[in-house]
Design brief:
This protein has 333 residues and is mostly helical. It has 13 helices and 3 strands, in the order H-H-H-H-H-H-H-E-E-E-H-H-H-H-H-H. The longest helix is centred in the C-terminal third of the chain and has 32 residues.
């Protein structure tokens, strides 16, 4: 399948026709909105807005499905880190092990002995008002050695992965609806004030543009290398973990060599065409401002302002809470 992430896809859409400077600012505002502490409800609002922009771009929604496998791997890594780092402190654990408190059902309390909590379900004060203040609230958890598979660890991983997925989706919209040249010129215009303090804005914009342009090229190159290695009997996808690590070595090294070779070829091509980043130049492409560009930009700004007020609960709006694990898996007190 042809990789589309990071690749410009020409379409006749409102987003494609948008001034790239306004488009870049709009994407940045939406990314800032994603990283606000807006809770699950706020992220749902951001997801709806991003899906609307994706539909206005006339891009295939299969692109979003293609982003899921790497995002799922990121979720697994984040959840594993949270499982090691998120656990109740000693005072909270002592309160859990007190058989006289009302937090733990009698059937569970009888299974706890001598502070041994390995393999036992425990419930924190996520919905118990009698739990004293000052105790850590990590929800339902299950301890296996040093790993605490807790409700908090799971939901933290889900929310962080959802944030990353939304941010990657916005990046996909930007690169698919904006050509590399337009993106370079837009970045240069937005960074123009930095010229007043001697920063080479054009060079920075060119570096960013080339880096974004190389993403689909390297992904395609990785696919070709994997096929070539498979024809030689090296299987990267199947086998034991040790075999997969060895197979990745045969993929990463040729990919790095290819990346450096492509960078060198690009530098020779630019030099052969007389490219000088410090010379004065004129533009063939001139951006034109449209009313729709301003409308979309103001919408993104209004959304960010709304989510800022929503995060501090100034508006007093309703929040959607994630369900507790004990209600999902049918555990009752």
């Amino acid at each position: 399948m042809r990789v589309t992430f990071g690749r410009y896809l020409p379409k006749n859409s409102i987003i494609h026709a948008m001034d790239p400077r306004f488009k870049l600012v709009m994407i940045i505002l939406l990314m800032v909105s994603i990283f606000l502490p807006i809770g699950f409800t706020g992220y749902i609002i951001c997801a709806v807005v991003i899906l609307t922009i994706f539909a206005l771009s006339k891009l295939s929604f299969r692109m979003l499905l293609g982003l899921l496998p790497p995002v799922l791997f990121v979720f697994f890594v984040i959840f594993l880190m949270n499982a090691f780092l998120t656990h109740p402190d000693s005072s909270t654990l002592e309160y859990f092990l007190d058989k006289s408190n009302p937090i733990i059902p009698g059937a569970w309390a009888n299974k706890l002995s001598g502070g041994a909590v390995a393999g036992q379900f425990l419930v924190s004060s996520s919905n118990i008002s009698s739990m004293p203040d000052g105790y850590q609230n990590i929800g339902l958890f299950y301890k296996i050695g040093p790993i605490w598979l807790s409700e908090k660890a799971l939901y933290n991983a889900l929310i962080m992965t959802f944030r990353i997925y939304l941010m990657i989706s916005l990046t996909c919209i930007l690169t698919a609806s904006t050509s590399p040249l337009q993106l370079t010129l837009a970045i240069e215009d937005l960074l123009y004030p930095l010229k007043w303090i001697g920063i080479p804005v054009y060079i920075l914009s060119m570096i960013i543009s080339i880096a974004l342009r190389m993403i689909p090229t390297l992904i395609d190159e990785a696919g070709r290398i994997m096929k070539a290695q498979s024809s030689r009997g090296i299987d990267v996808k199947n086998g034991k973990l040790k075999d997969k690590v060895k197979g990745l070595t045969s993929l990463i090294i040729p990919l790095l060599v290819s990346a450096f070779q492509k960078a060198e070829d690009l530098s020779y091509a630019m030099e052969a065409r007389g490219y000088d980043p410090y010379s004065k130049r004129t533009r063939y492409i001139q951006f034109k401002f449209r009313t729709m560009d301003l409308v979309l930009l103001l919408f993104a700004f209004a959304l960010m302002l709304f989510l800022i007020l929503y995060s501090v609960n100034v508006l007093g709006l309703w929040h959607i809470s994630l369900p507790r694990l004990d209600t999902i898996i049918g555990i009752r007190k």
